[in-house]
Amino acid sequence: MKKALHAKPFRLQMPGHTPRHARPEPARSKLLRGVSLCLAAVCLAASVSFQPATAATSMASLQNKLNSLSKSIDQHKKELSDAKKKEAAAKALESELKERVGVIQSQIGVLSTQIAAVQNSIGQTEQKISAKEAEITQKQTEIDGQWDDFKKHMAAMQELRDGGSVAMLSAVNDLYELLTFNEVMQDISIKDTEIMDNMKAAKSALEADKVELEAQRKELQSQKAELDTQNYQMKAKQSELNSSISAAQLSAQDAQKAQQTAQAAIESDELNYEAVKKEIQKLIAAAASSKPQLSFTGFACPLKSYTRISSEYGWRKNPVSGVNRLHAGIDLAAPGGTPIYAAASGYVQVAGWSSGGYGNYVIIYHGSMSDGNAYSTLYGHMRSVATSAGKYVKQGELIGYVGSTGNSTGNHLHLEVWKGGKKANAVNPRGYIPFPHN
Predict the structure, then answer these.
(1) Nearest 10 degrees: CA dihedral of 362, 367, 372, 376?
(2) Which UniProt keywords are listed (predicted)?
């Protein structure tokens, strides 16, 4: 898999540490991760403390690291998504190929049955041919025997004509006896000829039956040869599909390995991202402590070209995950690229990519309002960010542009108001920010 190109991020790995995957994290791994985060923060703090650069330079450097890590996370998430698609495609192909193999196996079964039936017919036909050949041989033997008797009979008749007939004629007493003798001789001759003709006709019929049976055998053998060819082709296709199935299974395995690699890279980058973000928070806190106490009088709508609220604060079914959970802010529908302005003056705590679903986002700490409570605001799903962490911004100053990054289904600004400056105390923005055409 091609690795994402980005600046060298801060990477801290404990000896024997193995990247976590998408399964429940054991207690030992949680401990190692906590230690890693602490050590990462210490190392980053040391790198800031011992370098002669200014706080602004350190902040810019850390922000660059955050941006670099965000790009790396995006790249690895894309690789993870591509690997999942590849695995799904490989498994779908495997399923399709197995289904085709099943069809071919059924066809091979049908062909085998047909081949067996034709082979059985060939055997029966050959038995009939053998029987006909035996009948022809027997008939020929009868014809040959009859022919020998006929020849003997003709010889006797010839002798009768040559000598015996004279003696017989001399014994004839009247014309009736003479005619009777002549009729008898003719009847014998006709009968002998008829017998010979019948036997020859029977032999010819047997030979014709044999020819017909041999033609049937030839036709059956031709059918069997054709079925054998089809059977061979089907088995070759089955073998080819089985090879393709093996290739699809290997492709799915490769995709699974690619997912593991991408997931490990994402978790490593996110670990480093959190460590860098904690260091930025420390620098912001240090900068805030060196400034006069922040205060403000109230909020303004962050969209000057405000249109409408597309989703209210409160419990709802998340449109991306489908899970029923608290929607901790208000969604302001607006075209992509619409400018977003700071709702009140304050310090930018975060400006970059969120691994928690906000996409490109900004968090501004405003300090105390007249009610005595400190407030922060969060602006999520930006197309791009137009400020940086650690910067002091005034109310109405440009901080980014409306987009649909992170867990979003369309262009809008997700706006949260945190009472006490903590996300756990998110309140309904409607009670604090004036929205035109409310």
Answers:
(1) 10
(2) Coiled coil
Beta-strand ranges (E) seen in 110-266 are none
Give the residues across from 347 on adjacent strands. Answer: 365, 392
Of the ranges 235-244, 256-265, 348-357, which one carries the lowest mean pLDDT score? Answer: 348-357
CA dist list (Å): 295 to 376, 418, 430: 12, 15, 21
Secondary-structure class of domain 291-438 per CATH: mainly beta
% of the chain at pLDDT higher than 90? 32
Show me where the domains of the chain are located.
97-250, 291-438
* Predicted model pTM: 0.45
Residues 6 or more apart whose CB falls under 8 angstroms from that of 34 comprise none
Whether residue 10 has pLDDT greater than 50: no
For residue 413, the cross-strand partners are: 332
CA distance 378 to 413: 10
Q: Measure the N-to-C terminal CA separation of the chain; round to a whole number of Å.
A: 51
Residue with the bigger pLDDT between 267 and 4: it is: 267
* Fold match, 97-250 / 291-438: no
**Residue matched to tokens 């649909």:** 404
Better-scored residue on pLDDT, 421 or 184: 421
Give 361's strand partners. 352
Query: What topology is assigned to 97-250 in CATH?
Result: Helix Hairpins (1.10.287)
Of 364, 276, 203, 345, the closest CA to residue 48 belongs to 276
Name the average pLDDT for the chain: 78
* Higher pLDDT pick, 58 / 207: 207
Give the integer Cα–Cα distance in Å for 202 and 143.
10
